[in-house]
């Protein structure tokens, strides 16, 4: 190791450290090593070693001005900075030798004081368009208020006779070329197809705002959390689909945290970690689903942490989802958890009845199916857990109707969704039945449990007993107890009376049927 180079670089690092935040310093400068300090033709050339071409790109784009000032301060006006870039091997079997490339800082542009204000030279690096623009603007910003910029990158200042090899596009690695990145988005997850309700209003509004200006709102990162099948994936992908359609970013990528982890592990096995890292650092809008799966995976978390920082620092948009609030996710490092909460966290909850109905109506419309309102309401009343199950019930119903050439009516819905109905019956309580019957007959609920033998109360009590026997698993004794401690024989008598009257009295029969429907729908 060249001692003087190390000392010079240590001084540079001190200055740099004072001028940028701790995390940026850790990410971009700590891995750099001094290689040599030489004097040639009156110039003092400090060469530092970079772990990959990506660092070269990044430093030039983001820290050019700072590096230039720092070198001038430490080495004087004749100071020049050179990079020795370690070239990532595509094939781990390749020999080590020759795996580096010397480059002058500033990619060979003339960065003399006069030239620094000039439009950027077409970069020798065949950098992707978006980044090139970003680079040029950061350069001109960097040159403002600059007391005496040094020519720290003039290619003519390179070693005599050294022809700099043209630097190839660092992203031109098979399979990860920027232009070729497939966003992995499901095109059917759009805002148009996402039904808004009280359960998801905040998340949907924030998602919409982000889609208008990715990376420019304070919702960065944006994290949506909530239970299974409640639309998290749909919503986060809707942002991606919208932004892609508007072409407001160059690259957008959706990845599940499981896939991210698998790819990362593979990159370790294949000795391609820096490639993996480079790939993710070029994404403008990164969507990571189900981040709770990072739990307990320390190395993956560390890699994601650095990627997160790099993207966030450069104003790229990060969108995340989790099955619970970030503070409740266990096994994730505090520094990463706190970053998850930097922007906005919004939850999605189970949809209310109206939203469930609206979702079913939309799904039926999208599939070109006409569904009677009572069928939609029947499904919506009975399937409350999540939207995926709601969709599943509809698909099941459609499949039966098509396969058995049946009408899509309430009878078919009851038949097909019987399992779900059975679940409902198991959960149905005697109190619920009493409430619905009394609501329907307009009788105070507590009277069916009281001693009174008024005619209309007796009728309500008998109908409630009949449904309790028919729709719950409770024993006759238990049912009797729920009706003011009556005997099991009273329940049998009530059941027989109702059954007989259904047979003989049509009006009564249709009233009981109507009450039965209300119980099935559990309507209030
Ligand atoms: N508000 C909504 N409007 C329309 N469809 C929705 C809505 N919410 C969810 N869906 C649909 O429900 C299904 C499940 O949603 P999604 O996969 O987004 O849930 P999730 O919350 O990501 O679940 P998981 O945690 O299991 O991944 C999808 O087909 C989605 O299109």
Automatic annotation (TrEMBL):
- Superkingdom is Bacteria
- Bias (Low complexity) occurs at 135-166
User: Which PROSITE patterns does its entry note?
Assistant: DNAA
DNA-binding among the record's keywords?
A: yes
Identify the stretch(es) annotated as Domain I, interacts with DnaA modulators. 1-116
The family database entries (CDD domains) matched by this protein are listed as:
AAA (cd00009), Bac_DnaA_C (cd06571)
Q: Which UniProt keywords apply?
A: ATP-binding, Cytoplasm, DNA replication, DNA-binding, Lipid-binding, Nucleotide-binding
What are its GO cellular component terms? cytoplasm; plasma membrane
Region feature Disordered, mapped onto this chain: 93-172
Q: By its UniProt entry, which SMART domains does this protein fall under?
A: AAA, Bac_DnaA_C
Q: Where is the AAA+ ATPase domain?
A: 218-348
The Swiss-Prot or TrEMBL record describes its family as follows: Belongs to the DnaA family.
Summary of subunit composition and partner proteins: Oligomerizes as a right-handed, spiral filament on DNA at oriC.
Its function, per the record, reads: Plays an essential role in the initiation and regulation of chromosomal replication. ATP-DnaA binds to the origin of replication (oriC) to initiate formation of the DNA replication initiation complex once per cell cycle. Binds the DnaA box (a 9 base pair repeat at the origin) and separates the double-stranded (ds)DNA. Forms a right-handed helical filament on oriC DNA; dsDNA binds to the exterior of the filament while single-stranded (ss)DNA is stabiized in the filament's interior.
The record's PANTHER family line, in alphabetical order, gives:
CHROMOSOMAL REPLICATION INITIATOR PROTEIN DNAA
**What name has this protein been given in UniProt?**
Chromosomal replication initiator protein DnaA
